[in-house]
Amino acid sequence: MTSKDFAIVIQGPLISSGNSGDGIHVNEFSCIENIQNLILSSKHLVKGYVVSTWKSSIPIEVEDDVILLNLDDPGPKPVIGYPYPSNEYRQSFGCLSAINKAIEEFNPKYILKIRTDQFVDLPFMIDHMINVDKQTSIYQRIGQSGFLYFPNMLSWSPYSVGDFFIGGHARDIQAFFEAQIELSNHTFGYDFSWLHSDIILRHAFRNLQSKLKLQHEFFVPNLAPSLRLHLLHHKYPIKFHSAIIRLWSLVLEHSVSFFPRSISENMIWRGSKMNFEKHTMGEFYEEWQAAYPNFQTWISKMYPGLYLKKNEITILDKFLHFYPEKLVEIREKRQVFRRHVFRLLRIILSTVRGHFPKDLIVPISSLKRFFLR
User: Fold this and answer.
1) By C-alpha distance, which of 114, 109, 89 is closest to 39?
2) What's the distance, CA 223 to chain centroid?
3) Closest Cα partner for 327 from 80, 157, 159?
4) Which of 3, 108, 190, 348 is the most exposed place for a label (fewest CB within 10 A)?
């Protein structure tokens, strides 16, 4: 490449803790040397860098083509349907702040967002994005300038992708993270939030719905947050709404692509190389390329038996999953209604038997409150 079309966003803390590439927990990994190595490896290809982190006393020196954002950390934020505060919002906030700054300062054609605690082959990733965009430039892009590139697809749930790094045309990346911020307190999972599908569905709901002429039934709550988790916890098979095949196929054809397997295989995470035996990785660009553009056929063959046939589809609770507070209200009403019905049945049966149970009388005021809610 002869021109510097890229800006790199490096987002995250300067001291990182959590799993390493080998699956071992690391308490305190200093990201400063890793950030410097990322910059050194790609300076000849990149217009500029934005390092987005949280206000800290840790010093870090940057050069002229590197902008350092020391942001106020908003902290974890509650997500409706999620049992405890999530880091999703703070990550999206840090990413979007850096993306906006990169567009303002460098006006790049592409942006590639990566983490402060992971080292990846940036030149190879840059080359891959440009080559794939050239090869598929004749296809409709539904308003996007190119694909959004993710590390991988996760096999056990539709719409699910890895979120370690993401690249694409600058305005496409900006729109993607704007969707994450605007819909940060919504989850598309039926029972609880599932980050890896929520990020794609937020993007589809905000940025793709009108352009792909999608109707709300494509977002029905038969989407399990994680097929693997459901099988583990509920001990019964989960099937997905058949319309999900169409939506996921359209998103894969027009909006989302992936990086080659070798990027993840050779990634260094908190000091150690990625171990595929310790991390479930799913599919990569190689599988996406083989399926393109016939993703509907590919998904059906890859996951036979996981999708409901049309005559099996139920529309119970249609649309409610996108308004979880409404779903909770409906469920509460159903529970109250069931209790009243069972109480009335017991009263009727007891009365027939000749001993009316006064303690089971349902207060009129309680019924009025239920029906007038």
Assistant:
1) 114
2) 13
3) 80
4) 3
